[in-house]
From TrEMBL:
Required co-factors: FAD
Biased composition (Basic and acidic residues): 260-271
Alphabetical list of PANTHER family matching this protein: L-ORNITHINE N(5)-MONOOXYGENASE-RELATED (PTHR43098)
Region (Disordered): 251-271
Protein name as it appears in the record: Phenylacetone monooxygenase
Length: 551
């Protein structure tokens, strides 16, 4: 048995550097995890890279940043008092409102005293002899903890493609996922935005309103539908508060974590007029069209009807037919994350906006003056990278995470080619390590906050169970894990989603191994399954009693 880790043994830590649990990240996940563990009487410490709480909502300050899950569903539901005292004023909350909410939560539950900001966890090694994690930070600090819990997020490790010459550009270069705190002045400037996913599509209409000229560098046209954002009426808010117990129940039992009816009928069984009317209704209501029929993500022909409806809308909206043609998405709708916008396609009718098709004329590099494609150089004063994230595994792989026998998570998962988790919450060989909305949980294909709450509550119950029985370690069994991974893949393969070229599959990161590490069985079914596992005494987990320590 190994007696220490590469970071040294987990013995001889001063009390101030020794915790029951270390939690990585102070976003929605880390904040609630800290609250739960403190309620259970455990000593937990959160480490957070940012200067303050918020996670992705701390970093994503770009103009137009909003959440595409309706605000009344995108909040914690664990506290009646918190639900009653907070009001979302618009259908979709913007980034400043969500950040205010998370600050309110941190203050209300006095969380800040157990959070260390401006600290990045760089390594965490499991010391098998003491059944503790030795955790190292970028400031040189090393602490030990019985439990290590990642709330590092699914979309927090930003991706900037390695364009040649990037260091030569004379003006500011900004990434939507690491936006500056001070206001960015676009007035009169030639601005280039690279990327037209959710972040680009939210930012482009806002930047266009200010910029002297905006160049949108688009590689793949994405599907976007109107968000239909609006102020909430007072009666709607009153009624929502009254009905919240039912709304919460509905969210928890639903497929995607929001309390909306899901249609199950087939788009192909409807008439052409019937489909047009239903898609039009969904378009006018705002939101994605994915809920219009039950088979849009499972049947390519059904999917094509929604795709064509959106293409027709783009042709109707964009005045220049050549520009409209370039904006038409051709992949299967929903296989990249569907985007919600506020006036995106209309933006291309402005005189100060130019769409640059970098699929036919790829970006060759960045120069001192701007962006150079194969055919010409675009002189710019500022470049905005809306180029997304190394999703699902990026934040975990950035940490040198080593479990039993010094095996790293990256090695175990073979850089993403062989991701294996049990319930997305644990992985064999890494005792007492838990992931909040890790790979192979519903995570990014659900309302994240509802999924985070479910995982946090399940993890804290599991820890309580282990503590009450005096266990030194809880670890996923490799058989149970293999079975869960197989099941995830089997469910995903009943849909069109694994076929997509998207960050869901890792296709957005050159060289990244393809996989589809998201559980598509639905939030309600997942919760039921996890509850069954705990009711059966944490079936599929190995609980090592204290006595085994001496063996
Ligand atoms: O990133 P993306 P995002 N040359 O990966 C392009 C969540 N989110 O930050 O499609 C040229 O979707 C790339 O082109 P292509 C949400 O889940 C949520 O926009 O790969 N272009 C694409 O257009 C979302 O899905 C909210 O051909 C290059 C873009 O960059 C996720 O975050 C708001 C390129 C990246 O799009 C990620 O969204 C915002 C290159 N070399 C984000 N490399 C909410 O509302 C990449 N691109 C909650």
């Amino acid at each position: 048995m190994q007696s220490s880790t590469h970071l040294g043994p987990a013995t001889s830590f001063a009390p101030e550097n020794s915790f029951d649990a270390v939690i990585i990240g102070a976003g929605f996940s880390g904040l609630y995890m800290l609250h739960r563990l403190r309620e259970q009487g455990l000593r937990a410490r959160v480490y957070e890279v940012g200067d303050d709480v918020g996670g992705v909502w701390y970093w994503n300050r770009y103009p137009g940043a909003k959440c595409d899950v309706e605000s009344i569903y995108y909040n914690y539901t664990f506290s009646e008092a918190l639900l009653k005292e907070w009001t979302w004023t618009t259908r979709y909350a913007d980034q400043p409102s969500i950040l205010r909410y998370l600050n309110h939560v941190a203050d209300r539950f006095e969380l800040r005293r157990d959070i260390q900001f401006r600290t990045r966890i760089t390594a965490a090694h499991y010391d098998e002899a003491t059944a503790r994690w030795v955790v190292h930070a970028d400031n040189g600090q090393t602490v030990a903890a019985r439990y290590l819990i990642s709330g590092a997020g699914c979309l927090s490790s930003t991706n900037t493609p390695p364009f040649s010459g990037q260091d030569q550009f004379k003006g500011p270069q900004l990434h939507t996922g690491q936006w500056p705190h001070e206001p960015v002045d676009f007035r009169g400037k030639r601005v280039g935005v690279i990327g037209t996913g959710s972040s680009g599509i939210q930012a482009i209409p806002e930047i266009a309103k200010e910029a002297g000229h905006l160049y949108v560098f688009q590689r793949t046209p994405h599907y976007s539908t109107p968000a239909g954002n609006r102020a909430h009426a007072a009666e709607f808010l009153d009624e929502t508060r009254e009905r919240y117990p039912q709304i919460r129940q509905h969210m928890r039992e639903s497929s995607n974590g929001v309390a909306k009816e899901v249609r199950r009928d087939s788009a192909l069984k409807d008439t052409e007029d019937g489909r047009a009317a239903r898609y039009e209704q969904a378009w006018q209501d705002g939101g994605t069209l994915l809920a219009a029929y039950g088979d849009l993500l499972t049947n390519a022909d059904a999917n094509a009807t929604a795709g064509e409806f959106i293409r027709e809308k783009i042709r109707d909206t964009v005045k220049d037919p050549a520009v409209a043609e370039l904006l038409l998405p051709r992949y299967m709708y929903g296989c990249k994350r569907p985007v919600l916008d506020s006036g995106y396609y209309e933006t291309f009718n402005r005189d100060n906006v130019t769409l640059v098709d970098v699929k036919s004329d790829p970006i060759e590099g960045i120069t001192a003056a701007g962006v150079k494609t194969g055919s010409r150089e675009y002189p710019l004063d500022m470049i905005v990278f809306a180029t997304g994230y190394d999703a699902m595994t990026g934040a975990l792989f950035r940490i040198d995470l080593r479990g039993r026998d010094g095996i790293s998570l990256r090695e175990k998962w073979q850089d993403g080619a062989a991701i294996r988790t049990y319930l997305g919450v644990a992985t064999a060989g890494f005792p007492n390590f838990f992931m909040i909305t890790g790979p192979e949980s519903p995570s990014v294909l659900s309302n994240m906050v509802i999924s985070i709450e479910q995982h946090v509550e399940w993890i804290s119950d599991c820890i309580r169970h282990a503590e009450q029985r005096g266990c030194m370690a809880v670890e996923a069994d490799s058989q149970a894990e293999a079975e869960w991974s197989r099941h995830c893949k089997e469910v995903a393969d009943t849909t069109l989603l694994p076929q997509g070229e998207s960050w869901y599959t890792g296709a957005n990161i050159p060289g990244k191994q393809r996989s589809f590490p998201i559980y598509l069985g639905g939030v309600g079914a997942f919760r039921k399954h996890c509850d069954g596992v705990s009711a059966r005494g944490y079936e599929g987990f190995i609980l090592t009693p204290q006595a085994a320590k001496a063996a």
